[in-house]
Amino acid sequence: MDIVICKSKEQASYMVAAYIDRAIRKNPRTVLGLATGSTPILMYKELIRRHKECGLDFSQVHSWNLDEYLGLEGTHPASYRYFMNEQLFDHINIDKANTHVPDGMATDYEAAAAAYEEGIRADGGIDIQVLGIGSDGHIGFNEPATSLSSRTHVQTLMLGTRQDNARLFFGGDLAAVPTRAITMGTGTVLDSRVAILLAFGKGKAPAIAGAVEGAISHMNQASALQLHRDAKFFIDEEAASLLKHADFYKAVYADSDLRSLEA
Ligand code: F6R
After folding, report:
1. Strand 67-69, strand 180-183: pairing
2. Which of 236, 243, 251, 253 has the most CB atoms within 10 Å of its CB?
3. Ligand 1 atom closest to Cα of 204?
4. pLDDT at 187
């Protein structure tokens, strides 16, 4: 695992956008795995800036999002399809036909989940998976006690997750937050070639400490990334504040090529 402790969320977002920029320029048909939520917003803004000002070309890029609420149309303002259009896709030259978000309106969820897995496979697999982390350690919507080898599936959401996300539903209407979602599994995430997790703020510190320094456990799904062949955490000082070996990670970083991503 590469643990990059950044001065600010702005710096972390810049570095991750720079990493993705390099990958796309090297392989224009990069397959991205994308996340929603507050965490990746600044990183998406930086990708948009690079598209508009630096010629970053998304015309051949494909994308697969982690998750979607069950029962929400893509036109619903709190749906993840709507979020992706607003925060990224509408501002870059990606072909929307090559962007995928699980179908929250599918009637046969099992078939939809299996088709999503098959779609990722047929697309060549995910080159770079972007992740946030829930305060309970979830990645995608894989809540505690989900199998660490799970594939795309329907997931019941924990109350704490629904409370965390209620702010996006008509200013905090918990009753409006769906109780279930369709999500890539943690096993699906582990298949990605590179996994990049972003985390900002004190609220994420316990989940980050568990993921990086705790035992691998289905109670903190992000801890499964310890088994990933190439996982990189870009986190701010607050999210890193409960790490026991932060100084060591900083020393490793000082010797690494990742420094070249800094502005
Ligand atoms: C979103 C997702 C979730 C979020 C996590 C953190 O597609 O998969 O795992 O990354 O809930 O959300 P924020 O960034 O809003 O704190």
Report:
1. antiparallel
2. 236
3. 16
4. 98
- Work out which ligand 1 atom sits closest to the CA atom of 131: 10
Q: Is 76 exposed, middle or buried (0-12, 13-18, 19+ CB in 10 A)?
A: middle
Per residue in 127-179, pLDDT tens? Answer: 999 999 999 999 999 999 999 999 999 999 999 999 999 998 988 999 999 99
Higher-pLDDT residue of 170, 244: 244
pTM: 0.97
8 Å CB contact between 56 and 47: yes
Residue carrying structure tokens 């703020």: 201
- 136, 164, 191, 236: the catalytic one is 136
According to the model, what pLDDT value does residue 87 have?
98
Question: What is the spatial distance between Cα 161 and Cα 134, in angstroms, rounded to a whole number?
Answer: 7
Catalytic (active site) residue 95: no
pLDDT at position 171 is 84
68 in active site? no
- What is the average per-residue pLDDT within 227-246? 98
For residue 124, count other CB atoms closer than 10 A to its CB: 12
Q: Please tell me the residue having the least CA distance from ligand 1 atom 11.
A: 134
Q: Which domains does the chain have, with CATH numbers?
A: 2-236 (3.40.50.1360)
For the Cβ of 46 lying below 6 angstroms from any atom of ligand 1, the answer is no
Q: Distance between CA atoms of 97 and 165, rounded to whole angstroms?
A: 28
Q: Which SS3 state, helix, strand or coil, does residue 256 take?
A: coil
Instruction: Give the whole-angstrom CA distance, residue 34 versus residue 100.
Output: 9
**Among protein residues, the one whose CA lies closest to atom 3 of ligand 1:** 140
